[in-house]
Amino acid sequence: MTAEAFAPSTLRRGASRTAAKITLDVAFSVVLFVGTIVGVIALATLIWTIVDNGWARLAADPIAFLSNYVSRLPARSGIKAALVGSTYLMVLTALFCFPVGVGAAIYLEEFAPRNRVTNFVEANIANLAGVPSVVYGLLGLGIFARFFRMGPSLLAGALTLAVMSLPVIIVAAREAIRAVPESIRLGAYALGATKWQAVRRQVLPAALPGTLTGTILALSRAIGETAPLLVIGLPVVIFSLPNDLRDPVSALPLLIFNWTSRPQAAFAEAAAAASIVLLALLLAMNAVAIFLRNRYTIRW
Amino acid sequence: MPDGRTHVKEDEQRHETRIADALKARPVEDRAAAAAETVFRLDDVHVHYGRFLALRGVSLDVGKNEITAFIGPSGCGKSTLIRCLNRMNDLIPGARVEGKVEYHDQDLYGDGVDPVEVRRRIGMVFQKPNPFPKSIYENVAFGPRVIGMKPSSMDDLVEQSLRDAAVWDEVKDKLKQNALALSGGQQQRLCIARAIAVSPDVILMDEPCSALDPVSTARIEDLMDELKRDYTIVIVTHNMQQAARVSDRTAFFTAEAAEGTGDRTGLLVEYDRTDAIFTHPSDKRTEDYITGRFG
Question: Does the predicted model carry a pTM greater than 0.80?
Answer without folding.
Answer: yes
